[in-house]
Amino acid sequence: MAKFLSKVYGARTSAEVRRLYADWAGSYDAEIGEAGYATPARVAAALRAAGADPALPVLDFGCGTGVSGAALRAAGFAAVDGVDLTPEMLALAEGKGLYRRLAVIGPDEAPPEGYATIAAIGVIGPGAAPLAVLDRLVAALPDGGLLGFSFNDHALAEPGYAAAVPALARAGTVRLVSQGRGDHLPGIGVNSTIFVLEKR
User: Fold this and answer.
1) How far apart are CA 125 and CA 148, in angstroms?
2) CB–CB of 19/49 below 8 Å?
3) Is the Cβ–Cβ distance between 96 and 73 less than 8 Å?
C-alpha cells in the first residue's frame, strides 16, 4: 500500500511536491490511515492544551485532503479554514464538509493573516513544504498567537530543521510553549515531534 510514502521524502522542488501530491490525492487517506497517521490528533490536542480558543477560526495550513481538519474539528475547533498547494487534494477536503473555506496557496505565497491559531500538521519537511515556511507562518501570527506544527524524523535528521525552533526562541520571536515526540506513522516506524509556539 505504501506506494507514495516510499517516494515522498525524496521530492525536493515545489514542482515535484505538487505533482506527487496531485497523483497521491485519490489514495492518500487510505495509505496514511493504514500507516496509523497519529500526528494530526497530537497537534490538535497540543494546541488545545496550550490554550488556543476553539471558538476562534483556525488556519489549517497545508490541509491536504482534510485529515488534519478532521482532527482539529474533533478537538473542538468550530471554524477551520484550509489552504493547500494541491487543488486535487483540496477538492477531496471540500467534499468532507469540515471547512468554513478553502483556497489554493502558491509555494512562495505568504500565509493569510488574521488567525490567532495556525496548524501546520505534517507539512514542513523533506517532500513537503521547505523550512522557510516556518518563518512565514510565525510572521503571519499576531502577537500572542499560537502555531502548532510537526517535524517528522526525516526532517529532524537534517541539521537545519533541528536548529530552527531553538533559533527562533533565542531571537525572541517566539516562546516555546510545548514540545513532544511520539507517533507519526507508526505502521512504518516513523515518529514526529510536535511543537506549539507563541508569537512574541
Assistant:
1) 15
2) no
3) no
DSSP codes joined into one string, the chain: --TTHHHHTT--SHHHHHHHHHHHHHHHHHHHHHTT--HHHHHHHHHHHTT--TTS-EEEET-TTTHHHHHHHHTT-S-EEEEES-HHHHHHHHTTT--SEEEE--TTPPPPS--SEEEETT-BSTTSB-THHHHHHHHHSPTT-EEEEEEEHHHHTSHHHHHHHHHHHHTTSEEEEEEEEEEEEGGGTEEEEEEEEEE-
Residue range 115-163, pLDDT digits in tens: 999 999 999 988 788 999 999 999 999 999 999 999 999 899 999 999 9
What are the structural domains, with CATH classification, of the chain? 5-199 (3.40.50.150)
Bridge partners of 13, per DSSP, are: none
Contact 184, 150 (CB under 8 A): yes
- Asked if 58 and 52 count as a contact pair (C-beta separation under 8 A), the reply is yes
Report the DSSP pairing between strands 174-185 and 117-120.
Answer: unpaired
Closest of 71, 62, 109, 70 to residue 89, by C-alpha: 62
Looking at residue 145, its amino acid is G
Please tell me the pTM assigned to this model. 0.91
